[in-house]
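Hi F.,

I've been meaning to write this up properly since the lab meeting, where we talked about keeping a consistent format for the predictions we share between groups. The idea is simple: the sequence comes first, exactly as it goes in, then the structure tokens exactly as they come out, then a line or two of notes. No screenshots and no reformatting. I'm using this chain as the first example so we have something concrete to point to.
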Amino acid sequence: MLASTLRRLVLFVLLLPFAAHAAPQDEGARAWLDGQREWRVGVVMGAPYAEYDQRQRRLSGFHVQLMEQIAAQLGVRLHWRRFDDEAALENAARDGLIDVAPGLRQTPVGLRLWRYSDPFLRIARLLVGDRDGPRAIDLELLHPSELIAAEGPGSVTEFLAANYPNITVLTAASQADALRQVLEAKASYAVVDEPLFGRLSQQIEYAPLAVVGDLGSPQLLRIASRRDSPALAALLDSAIREFPAREFAQLQEQWLKPRSIDLGRELGYWRSLSLLLGVLLLICLLMFGWQRHQHGLLETRLKAARRDIELREAAEESQRLTQFCLDHSTVGILWLNWDSRVRYANQAAESLLGYARGELLDCPLDALDPALQMDAWLERWRAARTGENDREVHECEWQRADGQRFPAAITYSFLRFGSREYLVVFLADITERRRASAQLQESEARLKAMAGNVPGLVFRLERETPQGAVRIAYISEASQRLVGYSAERLLEPERGIRSLVHADDEADYWASQQLALEQGKDWRWQGRILNRDGEVRWADIRASVRGQADGRQVWDGIVWDITDNKRIELELAASRVQLRELAAHLETVREEEKAHIAREVHDELGQVLTVLKLEISMCELGFAGLDPALAQRLQSMKRLIAQLFQRVRDVATALRPPILDAGLASAVEWQGRRFEERSGVACLVEVPECPLPLGNAKAIGLFRILQESLTNVMRHAQAQTVSVQLTVEGDMLCLRVGDDGCGFAETARGPGSSFGLVGMRERVQMLGGQLSIDSQPGRGTTITARVPLDPAPLSTAASTGALSS
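Output, unedited:
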């Protein structure tokens, strides 16, 4: 009872300075404290803030002593819980297992879980670098190639990324790891808390490092309490404010300040060393003459000793490396004595045979290979010792520790080491290899069966190097059905597929094959071959190239019999040629008929209309003055005859424009002006000045193409300008009609919707030329027709020269 009263009195004295402005809250806190005398404290382990002393079996550190003194002031009892990191501490707090946690940073995430006290400690974050390097580092002027190592991700890395975007930060698992990255030259500087570096700097490992600057973002440590207990947070704030400054400074001096280095040892060492050097110097002076005499000998012995030491170290390193390679080899290795007992087994052999580490030692060989009894073993030992069947691979059944058998590949090698003799056994499990071999054989049989049933000849060409010779590696048995020769016959030297090619097609066959081989591309050829009966057959050869891992090139292909298809194709091509010739003949007949009708209409009907006009004029002269009504009627008849005259001219011009007789260039100019008058669209015409050597049929054909193109422009293009060009390009005459209209997409043209374009294309093909159409939506259309020029006759050129002279 007395102790409780004393504790209440102490608490009252501690909280008295704040009673004036926080009386209601302190009364609630005191009432809460009377019922909460045991606190669960969680601490993140890490020197110098919290450590566990194994010898004393208790916690120590800055945070531990701070909380113990605060608990003594408040009269509470602490129950400590240790955690490896803050994440584990937060999980325990969420589960309601923690009341107080000292030494935490205030974070936005932590505010939803804790109530933080005022900061009780300000920890500087130092920038550590090479002791011999530059000092007073300015992070603003740091070169991008100089890297900074920091524990992260966390507040330090976020601060550097937000304030110094020019700096490249290497994240480390801990601050000690960040310092090691500086020592290993992976980073130029490291960010470390001041207390931690004060402790680590006492170690020899970190002696080459020194402080070169301050990060400028100190770490503020607080005491976190449960979110649902504001009274506990108020008590902690009061206790921190009332914590004696002298005791707090003593805690900092004890745990956070770097201890001074005890140089006593070093001074004694240097004093002893100096004395020893003095004695040695005196001895050297006394024995100077003898030293000069023995200098050469000593130096020689020293070099020999160093060489021996280096050789011994290299031998030991080589022995360790050899032993490591043997132990970790993927091939099972056993060393057997002459009595067939195992003296050494590596990890691969133990794992393969199902034995634990060391269980195979002194195991007899017949327990692993029951078929190898002592007599057979001694015979095997004798053969290996004499060198018979050395390195020969034996396939047999071995037995694992659980009694299961597996196929193994065994190689024996005799080994003599000093006076001892061993038989080294190399062991490999070939279960997968046998399974793969069986699958490969089955796959090859399936492939041969499929290739034999394919209605064609399957083959393979192989080439070892890009410049090497090509050989036929495989021909299917279907060759018997296709050409009457067996695969073995075609695989003979100087035979192959080339021996089947028709003599007239052999050059084309050889050229296509060489092109595919030189360029390393797929091979395709169509031509005639001869079967065994001498019958001509059409064949289609297609082969695709593949590169192998060993540098070989392989062409896998097939020879199809396309005789029936080729016959149909040739007949179809001949039919198309006949149809095109017929269409050309019909077009010529139609143009001739148009010209004949145009002449008949123009001449015959024009003469009749002329006579009729004369007759009406005679009637007008003789009788128009007698009757005004008759004169008016005669004037009306003359106007009708004039309109009929114009209609006759239009019909004759539509059938065959007379301007064509003046040449294609004049006809193109005339058609362009006529189109411009009829449509109101500007038409730019460009034609050559000299006469063109062009026949009547080609001139009419190009003129009809021009008419159809301009008609399409007027109907569909919605153009503002049209350009017509007639140019000579080599031995070709080019007619190009372009517009700036709406254009169209080639894929948008459905069947039957563009007979005009089809007609133009067929007309150009009948003339022996080509037609190209370039159009895109919104970018206009350009139609180009090219036809070959006719050679100028010599007689015409001579007569032209005579007339000009």
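Notes:
The longest helix spans residues 563-623.
The chain has six domains: 2-119+232-256, 125-217, 300-326, 330-429, 457-561, 662-805.

If this format works for you, I'll send the rest the same way.

G.
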